[in-house]
Amino acid sequence: MQCDVCIIGGGLVGCSTALHLVRAGKSVVLVERDRIGAHASGANFGGVRRHGRNVLELPLSTRAFDIWRNMGTLVGNDCEFMPTGHLKIARSEAEMAVLEQWSSFGAEHGIPVVLHDRTSLRANFPWLNTSSFGASFCPGDGHANPRLAAPAFALRAGAEGAVVIQGDGATTVEDARDEFEVTLHSRRRIRAAVLVNAAGAWGRHFARYYGDEAPVEAVAPQMFVSEPVPYIIDAVLGMVTGGLYLRQIPRGNVIFGGGRGILDPNCHRSSPSDRVFAETVGLAGDLVPSLRDIAVIRSWTGVEGHCEDGLPILGPSPRRANLYHAFGFSGHGFQMAPAVGAVLSELIARGFSETDISALSPRRFTGAKSSILAESEI
Amino acid sequence: MRAAETLLRAGLSAALIDEAPLAGGQIYRQPPESLRRPARQLYGSEARKALALHESFSRLRTSIDYRPETLVWGAREKRLLLSGPAGNTELAFDKVILATGAMDRIVPVPGWTLPGVYSLGGAQVVLKGQACLIGKRPVFIGTGPLLYLVAYQYCKAGAEPAAIVDTSDFTAQIGALPRLLSQPATLLRGIWYNAALVARRVPVFRSAKPQKIEIRGRQLVVTFKRNGKSFEIGGDAVGMGWGLKPETQLAEILGCAFSFHAGSRWHLPRCDAMGRSSTEHVYIAGDASGIRGADAAEAAGELAAFAVLEDLGHTVPQTRRQRLLAHLARAERFRSGLERAFPYQVPELAGDTVLCRCENVTVEEVRAAISSWQISELNQLKALTRCGMGRCQGRLCGSAAMEVLAAETGVEISDVGSIRGQIPLKPLIGARFQRKAAP
Ligand SMILES: Cc1cc2nc3c(=O)[nH]c(=O)nc-3n(C[C@H](O)[C@H](O)[C@H](O)COP(=O)(O)OP(=O)(O)OC[C@H]3O[C@@H](n4cnc5c(N)ncnc54)[C@H](O)[C@@H]3O)c2cc1C
């Protein structure tokens, strides 16, 4: 099979890249080993927030915010995006100081937030516990349904001409003159001028083919869902410490996450840890006391690539022309993926993008150690 | 209970964990003290067996770590996670025997979610455990031996069933006779129930195709077709069930390998004749690895205990072992006969039938999603439609959802997958994990 661009990985990053590229007139083959969205993109919390992000991600995150608001027009499915606003909780004065500091970064990037002290928290978010010190609220952020997003992008991309292959992974990548030759598990081969490595937690493997090293390891954040109860939690919750994140959907289920589950030895799959179960369910009941009386019906995990500095590996390979990396999203990729596709397709089709992703470049691991602060929360 | 008894006799220390407040399982379930009735009345022809089991268990009670009202909500490696009167605890083990039994298999019929409609198993639970009836004039729909057994038990308890609506046909039941003769006593019991129902003039309709259940005035009316004609039967309650399906979630969590079983159209954990699963320290006995009924379950429990003992280097009585194996082999043959006599057939489901009652997803919605999203696998179906995503996590709708998916896509039923199990195995209240008191 011959195409302009071959994308390895059918998570939201790969699917969004596929859609943007076909719209830019490129012929695209997307290769997914399992099913579209089967990994991090389908299993994640569904948080769509700019609030509290590392400033180096903000250009990308802000662009993604605009896409999320128009998701229905872009892919024909709003993916249940709800701009409820995001509330980040501080449990101490020191944590509040972190929020205050971020509020000025936010202002610089055009993301205004509202700071709440204990009293105004009580008045505005009566379902919250009474022991929180304060919080910062970011209107416009919100949540969406991760089970729909990647399949919606893939379906759209397929309808507009991309070839979407599922259940058949890439096993090797080789050079064939100036092109790439990707061999699949089924022995099918794909020739492409450009290769996008969107293999999520497994992206490091393909990066290494061309000597690109990135300190990305697989982790398995753990999620929970409760039985449906009346809808009262009308904002996405997060904590400065990152230990817990929580949202409720209008159907009534409360979805929350915190802690990490257990990875299989081969890092392909993961499963929930019962210790984390006990801890996180306990934390959720501390934060929203009414959750103590309701039942948790399921816990699950997803395999995510976590980079040492908490930032994705995104941009052209420093070593091989026409190779682009987009993996290791470190818990932030669901929100940013729609913009990742837009930026990559601009870089591939036009050679430049107005969105500044230079701080996320794989180049940062070629030599000098970076001094970027980690922000590990989802 | 039989497994526990065998292990204790060999000098092993054992714990018995049961979700129910009193021992006996589904079939020999005991009512609470205040609702005691004579065994003969509760268990009918099986009273002797029930009493024998209860007695042998009460002798055991002091020597076993018995934990009633305790749910196993998960497991990892050699630890079980328990939730019970003692709160949430863990139990470390060397070997575990899963005797988790089975639950009703339901074919959704429009109206099956109405108040007054119960599963056959549920109808039996309220009768045995709570001394209640689902109604004085219930209509029983479905197929399988339980259909007739429950109707019979309801008669004995003073109800007058309005009708039995069986979706299988009589010729299939005759055709299965040779296999059913492998357990003549059980077959006889079945014939006896039938005869008793005939004697009480309970109308039995075979080869019926249920169309809908409706509330009319104070009645529940069941409409079905038979030989092209439409019938209506009114009653004050409906019990429905299409045989049983094994409860296999714990085996799945413990990493046991499964294979598709064509007769029951369901994925079953792979076991050897003694009950050894593919996971070294996990054994499975009774209906949990395939529906063979109560007598076989007693044999299987003892055999699984023998397997544990053998694997721990004990010697087990060989003649007894052979006898039990032969008993199970007969039960297996009987089961294949039952599967022929009462084949599990999913009829063409009407579009407006609610398929997933927890999430209120209709057959029509599922069909539309299958075609618009190009769905070919059950977990994908769940992710995109919410079918199987609710409180019961697909226990109730999983089997019918598989059928709809296979029928829509033309994919073999064996290849559409099954809903992946996760912890907690059943809904678990958050308060159980609270460390601090409420502020
Ligand atoms: C539990 C959890 C909660 C999260 N919560 C949030 C959140 O609230 N907000 C947020 O913004 N982000 C969140 N994230 C992060 C977000 O989900 C990820 O960053 C994002 O989905 C990454 O998308 P991806 O396409 O890079 O990865 P993935 O979705 O993992 O996709 C990578 C794909 O590559 C495929 N692949 C790998 N190797 C091969 C191969 N050899 N051949 C073919 N295909 C291959 C895999 O099968 C996989 O489908 C969370 C992550 C998890 C796990």
TrEMBL record, chain A:
<feature type="domain" description="FAD dependent oxidoreductase">
    <location>
        <begin position="4"/>
        <end position="347"/>
    </location>
</feature>
<dbReference type="InterPro" id="IPR006076">
    <property type="entry name" value="FAD-dep_OxRdtase"/>
</dbReference>
<dbReference type="Pfam" id="PF01266">
    <property type="entry name" value="DAO"/>
</dbReference>
<dbReference type="GO" id="GO:0005737">
    <property type="term" value="C:cytoplasm"/>
</dbReference>
<dbReference type="GO" id="GO:0016491">
    <property type="term" value="F:oxidoreductase activity"/>
</dbReference>
<keyword id="KW-0560">Oxidoreductase</keyword>
<protein>
    <submittedName>
        <fullName>Glycine/D-amino acid oxidase-like deaminating enzyme</fullName>
    </submittedName>
</protein>
<dbReference type="InterPro" id="IPR036188">
    <property type="entry name" value="FAD/NAD-bd_sf"/>
</dbReference>
TrEMBL record, chain B:
<dbReference type="InterPro" id="IPR007419">
    <property type="entry name" value="BFD-like_2Fe2S-bd_dom"/>
</dbReference>
<protein>
    <submittedName>
        <fullName>NADPH-dependent 2,4-dienoyl-CoA reductase/sulfur reductase-like enzyme</fullName>
    </submittedName>
</protein>
<feature type="domain" description="BFD-like [2Fe-2S]-binding">
    <location>
        <begin position="355"/>
        <end position="406"/>
    </location>
</feature>
<dbReference type="InterPro" id="IPR036188">
    <property type="entry name" value="FAD/NAD-bd_sf"/>
</dbReference>
<dbReference type="InterPro" id="IPR017224">
    <property type="entry name" value="Opine_Oxase_asu/HCN_bsu"/>
</dbReference>
<dbReference type="InterPro" id="IPR041854">
    <property type="entry name" value="BFD-like_2Fe2S-bd_dom_sf"/>
</dbReference>
<keyword id="KW-0560">Oxidoreductase</keyword>
<dbReference type="InterPro" id="IPR051691">
    <property type="entry name" value="Metab_Enz_Cyan_OpOx_G3PDH"/>
</dbReference>
<dbReference type="Pfam" id="PF07992">
    <property type="entry name" value="Pyr_redox_2"/>
</dbReference>
<dbReference type="Pfam" id="PF04324">
    <property type="entry name" value="Fer2_BFD"/>
</dbReference>
<feature type="domain" description="FAD/NAD(P)-binding">
    <location>
        <begin position="1"/>
        <end position="301"/>
    </location>
</feature>
<dbReference type="InterPro" id="IPR023753">
    <property type="entry name" value="FAD/NAD-binding_dom"/>
</dbReference>
<dbReference type="GO" id="GO:0016491">
    <property type="term" value="F:oxidoreductase activity"/>
</dbReference>
